[in-house]
Amino acid sequence: MDNQKKCLYEKFGGDQQVSELIDQFYYKVLFDKLLRDKFLKADMSRVRYQQKRFFSQMMGDKNTQYTGRDLIEVHKNLNITNQQFDKFKTHLKNIAQDMEVPNQDIDELLQHVENHRDVIVFSK
């Protein structure tokens, strides 16, 4: 299969790599003073599970269906700022780079994430 035909999920390396990305990501987030407060009351194993499903689906995995709560419902009372959303993306980018994901795939991932800004950032 040539690389043009592969979805981002496949280019990343599938389930194991997406799981690794999300696990590393939340490890970083929970040590980030700007972000960790948003997760203090969260069930982190559930957050990670849902986030892995969401990312897998967003990245083109046809076999994964995100079944978690609506993104607006999840985020509307968290007062997430654009600065926090940007920091979230920076962590993802750095971890993907550490995982030696090619830059164009990282850019594609970050664009997918960016497309959800409006349902996550409510504190303008």
Automatic annotation (TrEMBL):
It comes from the Eukaryota. InterPro entries: GlbO/GLB3-like, Hemoglobin_trunc. The keyword Glycosyltransferase does not apply. It comes from Paramecium primaurelia. GO terms for molecular function: metal ion binding; oxygen binding; oxygen carrier activity. This is Group 1 truncated hemoglobin. Keywords: Heme, Iron, Metal-binding, Transport.
